[in-house]
Amino acid sequence: MVKNRVPDWLNSSLWSAAASPDDDRPRRHSPKYTPTPIAPIDSQEASIEPPMPEPPPPPPLVKEDAPPTQEECEQCPSKEDEARIPSAEELARQSQMISELLKKVINLKELRRLAAQGLTDASGIRSTAWKLLLGYLPCDRSLWPSELSKKRSQYKHFKDELLMNPSELARKMEKSSLSDSDGSNREGIGSLSRSHITHGEHPLSLGKSSVWNQFFQDTEIIEQIDRDVKRTHPDMEFFSGDTTFARNNQEALRRILIIFAKLNPGIRYVQGMNEILAPLYYVFKNDPDEEFSAFAEADTFFCFVELLSGFRDNFCQQLDNSVVGIRSTIAKLSQLLKEHDEELWRHLEITSKVNPQFYAFRWITLLLTQEFSFEDSLRIWDSLLSDSEGPQETLLRICCAMLILVRRRLLAGDFTSNLKLLQNYPSSNISHMLYVANKLRAQPPT
């Protein structure tokens, strides 16, 4: 059998090039800036002999600038700020994206093409584009107000109905029944009435239809959600900390996950869903449009549902061993690597015996949110969401590209070193990685 060689296009010097400074993760705080004081004019330089016999006038006194205040320092541009100034190409692409988003009817094909090259949070571009790419917003802008109003009203109904405990639900039903009565029966006026409690409404009932039995089952899931939400990106002030803002964001994530679990009894909640939810909510909540930011929770819920619809089989335990479950998805990644780099595939799975489930399970189920920085994850998601074939196929190509880009280290490693490398993937040039993933789609297996 002839081993498949690595494609020639991968041997380009492009892969050994240093990463561009544009890929640096943005920093939010600039160091203090102290301007250099203007030096006084040297008197010797001013001693040119004048036509008149009088001595030259003394040099003018130049007052030194006072040190800038703290507020002025925060406004001074730093080297980091200058380093992340977008290039002319990025500005042109951003202008194209804004023009596309402002059209009465948005061209989804063109939107995908632009989004695949990377989006920016400026002017709410990424927030609006993701909603369009996920099908939450229609391409016809005239339909936006009615669609958004309908969806946001529906989410409010979900909160009112699904986040209520059985006692509150019973009181609500009792008030409803009392309001329906005509009040003609006067016998019980002034006396305390005793509510009739059915077997299903009793807290000790174990019946499957009992609201209390269901409530206690939900409690276990809610406790798991609470633990995971508190662990969501502890390094980001947006999600963690003692501020009211961070606590409100955590509560929003919590409500979304609880409602999703109750509406999807076949999946309910699977640990790690909070990591998939976080990027969506972060992008939508930071939309500069006040209305979109205020309704970020509702918008995030429906986009989360749309996103998971393409991956839901990976979260359903009953389908793990089926042709659509997570093991089948990992097997597709293994086959993809074998087609494009059989030497690497053979070394990993046969020689060093690294089972792809040991590293690819987390890569696939969490959509690479744990392998890269938060900013890099957003850039990867721009490409995931913009692919017309669907996010899963693109995800598998990106995972395959991740393996190919560290092939030299993998080929030189054994089971222990390779597993450690893939479970702690090194920082990479995301643009290079996405380029390789795209080549895997266009490049026929060799």
UniProtKB/TrEMBL annotation:
GO terms for biological process: intracellular protein transport. This is Rab-GAP TBC domain-containing protein. Residues 9-20 have a biased composition (Low complexity). PANTHER family: TBC1 DOMAIN FAMILY MEMBER 13 (PTHR22957:SF27), TBC1 DOMAIN FAMILY MEMBER GTPASE-ACTIVATING PROTEIN (PTHR22957). Pfam families: RabGAP-TBC (PF00566). Residues 1-82, 172-194 are annotated as: Disordered. One of its GO terms (molecular function) is GTPase activator activity. PROSITE patterns: TBC_RABGAP. It comes from the Eukaryota. InterPro entries: Rab-GAP-TBC_dom (IPR000195), Rab-GAP_TBC_sf (IPR035969). Residues 50-61 have a biased composition (Pro residues). Gene3D superfamilies: putative rabgap domain of human tbc1 domain family member 14 like domains, Ypt/Rab-GAP domain of gyp1p, domain 3. Residues 120-388 form the Rab-GAP TBC domain.
